[in-house]
Amino acid sequence: MASRTLASHMSGLSIAAAKENVSPNSKARDGEPRAAGAEGKDAGAHDVKRAAPSEVPSQKPRVFSLGDFDIGKPLGRGKFGNVYLAREKRSQYVVALKVLFKSQLQKAGVEHQLRREIEIQAHLRHPNILRLHGYFYDANRVYLILEYAAKGELYKELQKCGRFDEKRSARYVLQLTRALRYCHTKHVIHRDIKPENLLLDLKGELKIADFGWSVHAPHARRTTLCGTMDYLPPEMIEGQDHDDLVDVWSLGVLMYEFLVGTPPFEASGAHETYRRITKVDLRIPSFVSPEATELLRKLLVKDAKARLSLEAMEQQPWIRKHCGSMLSQ
Ligand SMILES: Nc1ncnc2c1ncn2[C@@H]1O[C@H](COP(=O)(O)OP(=O)(O)OP(=O)(O)O)[C@@H](O)[C@H]1O
């Protein structure tokens, strides 16, 4: 069900997740989404799904507005707005509605980045990539209709557990590998894979969210960086041109963090983190198995071209040992 699109549910089907508590009477406070009628003069809406002619021959893409949704509990607060549980009234489809304030986007100068994020995420269809079903806007806000990830941030799980066991880590690494391989076939480089950008659905499956830093492959030029350096490869922090192999490095950083609980090159200051990344100062604790250690050393390689390819991941002994049921024999 989850892989079906919101547009395909417009006929009024209900889904299991609709049992979630989405109250139609949720009161909107100032600055939060209101029920129907809040759209301004320049409101607009887009269903990002463009149905293939064979799929829904006579159906026009559905156009959404705030009035189409019952707004439920807040799911989290982001840099530019909030995310709410919501239910599309006609189909009863449960989604996460991300509400972004135009004024805040403008102030931070990230409208262009958001446009790119929408454009990229809307065209990706993979079980381990959070679906963007559509978007619409009114005078003050932009609304993203996102797949609901019921188990929330992977980061919080990691904080709760301290670190994951090898089986759980390997399953996440395999899911990430598959999502990244898919992105790369679409010439999309994510460039910002970190635990905060990974969500979990009801079944605990990993979903890559947040394509804010992603780019189409030919344009991966030098860029100004902001935020944490911990997940970035040497070529990016040294300001060089780079390609999809940056995501292989980040996969290695995440694999380490799943197994150990902290990113591998963490240091007290930016200068020292920079030094540790560029020197690949990798220290793997002895509780990490030899198979995982071997794989980490193949992913976290300074020379991007010498890194293990994502295609080769499923043959790695560590993945084969822990992900048997997820692999085709
Ligand atoms: N699709 C979703 N399903 C469930 N919870 C979500 C979903 N999207 C976001 N959340 C929750 O809302 C919080 C805020 O999300 P948001 O993406 O706005 O945060 P952010 O890290 O500031 O992102 P951005 O950098 O894009 O602004 C997340 O940390 C998460 O807990």
Give a short summary of the structure.
This protein has nine helices and eleven strands. With 329 residues, it is α+β, with helices and mostly antiparallel strands. The chain has two domains: 6-146, Phosphorylase Kinase, domain 1; 153-327, Transferase(Phosphotransferase), domain 1 (Orthogonal Bundle), CATH 1.10.510.
> Which cofactor or ligand species appear?
adenosine-5'-triphosphate
The CATH superfamily of the largest domain is identified as Transferase(Phosphotransferase) domain 1
Strand composition percent: 15-25%
Helical segment count: 9
- Helix content estimate: 25-40%
Span between termini: 26 Å
Q: Give the count of structural domains.
A: 2
Low-confidence segments: 1-42, 48-57
Radius of gyration: 21 Å
Tell me the overall shape: globular
Order of helix and strand elements from N to C terminus: EEEEHHEEEHHEEEEHHHHH
InterPro entries: Aur-like, Kinase-like_dom_sf, Prot_kinase_dom, Protein_kinase_ATP_BS, Ser/Thr_kinase_AS
Keywords: ATP-binding, Kinase, Nucleotide-binding, Serine/threonine-protein kinase, Transferase
Enzyme class: transferase
Active site: 192 (proton acceptor)
Structure, explained:
With 329 residues, this protein is α+β, with helices and mostly antiparallel strands. It folds into two domains: 6-146, Phosphorylase Kinase, domain 1, CATH 3.30.200; 153-327, Transferase(Phosphotransferase) domain 1 (Transferase(Phosphotransferase), domain 1), CATH 1.10.510.10. The chain contains nine helices and eleven strands. The chain has helices spanning 102-108, 111-122, 154-161, 166-185, 234-237, 245-260, 270-278, 290-299, 317-322, and strands at 44-47, 69-77, 81-88, 94-101, 132-137, 141-147, 152-153, 188-189, 198-200, 206-208, 215-216. The strands form three sheets. A six-stranded antiparallel β-sheet has the order 1-5-6-4-3-2. The protein has a three-stranded antiparallel β-sheet with strand order 7-9-10. A two-stranded antiparallel ribbon has the order 8-11. A hairpin with a 3-residue loop joins strand 5 and strand 6 (141-147). The longest helix is centred in the middle third of the chain and has 20 residues, at 166-185. It is globular, with a radius of gyration of 21 Å. The two termini are 26 Å apart. Residues 75-80, 83, 96, 98, 130, 146-149, 152-153, 196, 199, 209-210, 212 line the site of adenosine-5'-triphosphate. It is an enzyme of class 2 (transferase).
